[in-house]
User: Fold this.
Amino acid sequence: MLFLQKLSRVPLTSRSALQGVTGVIVFSLKLLDGVHVGSGELNLIVRDLNAVKRFSREILAKKNIERVGAEIVNLISIGLKFVKLGTKLCIPGSTLKGVVRTRLELIAGKRGSGDTASACLTFAGPPLTKLPTPGSQGWRHARIWGRAVSIDREAESYLEEEFVSELCPICNLFGAPGVASRTLFSNACCDNCSTHVCTVSEYNMRLEILSPGTVLKGSIALRGVVVEELGLLLIGMGFDGNNFKPILIGRLKYAGEGMGRALFSLEKLIVAIYSVDYLEKLGVGVKQGDEGYVVEGDELKKLVYTAFAKARERYPDIEPFSEAEEKERISQQLNLVRCS
Ligand SMILES: [Zn+2]
Assistant:
């Protein structure tokens, strides 16, 4: 039976309001596992061209079709390439934003067990009526997120309204059709970072992965984001009130052993002059330096703790959760595939 959650809405924030924090968060993302985020570019990798040609002739002649079919699979695989910018390798900002937003949408409504949810899941597929059986599409994801993927939520349909006056807090912050986002994620990149190619035999796929230990740098631009919304963003990035917990990113993040775990950390926040007053009223010290108005060190910690507390108070159904830790906890059940 499906469980129906009510949606808790907030008034639409004016996209030009000079409120809260406008500025740039500078972050680093440390990979704890191998991570692959593809550029979408595929290349066919052929191990023995002569053998493939010979098999092709046999197929055309309708000879030994079953044997050829079985053998050709071992000779051809699909290679997935990483996103590159010059010498840098990058995880696209759109991927990072998608991960953070989706985490919040799944976490909202106490991961499926609360009566109301502060997220509408506008972009999600239909809820699951039963847990998929092992081996079927998305079964590992469903086991990790449990009830969160089985609930039915009141949905928003912004496209049908001429003027949006109220919407879910996540769409208000991250945008929706016709509603601009107030967070902009840059690509997270690393220079001279080490990668290796590994094969996932189950999917006959060759992936170029960034090695564990790689540190990527990126930033998130904020526009008129109030403190409780900053708290939401931090929970989406894995903050649990004390520390950032690992989150899962990239291809095969749910299916792969040693794939996908990454950890955010914040370096500093650079803010516009008109946000200084707002931060000082929160008790957060802002320093004026070469880069402009900067919050860092203990003052940044203070802001992070305050933002988290305000978000928990304002949106109690959004509780911190680490799907990466849950994956580790139930990894035996999940039959994780290792690439090599
Ligand atoms: Zn929404």
